[in-house]
């Protein structure tokens, strides 16, 4: 459930019905790069985090991946 929801929000999977709104904008059919530019990032469990980096640095790294 949670992973599916996050992947759908990020545009990695397409929603079969309904819509996804962020900051008042419909992002249901928005591409992953555009979603990341809006400030949304997803770090899969398998990627992990880098303990020596700040939360912001980890999120920026994930957005570029």
Write structural notes for this entry.
The protein is mainly alpha-helical and 65 residues long. The chain has one domain (2-64). The protein has helices at residues 2-9, 32-37, 55-64, and strands at 21-22, 25-26. It has a two-stranded antiparallel sheet. Strand 1 and strand 2 form a beta hairpin. The longest helix has 10 residues, at 55-64. The relative contact order is 0.15. The mean pLDDT is 87.
Q: Mind summarizing the main beta sheet?
A: 2 strands, antiparallel
Taking all Cα atoms into account, the compactness measure Rg is 13 Å
Structural category: mainly alpha
User: Oligomerization state of this entry?
Assistant: single chain
Averaged pLDDT = 87
Helix amount? 25-40%
**Strand composition percent:** 5-15%
Number of helices: 3
Counted beta strands: 2
Q: Would you list the SSEs in sequence order as H and E?
A: HEEHH
- Counted up, domains total 1
**How far from one another are the termini?**
23 Å
Spatial shape: globular
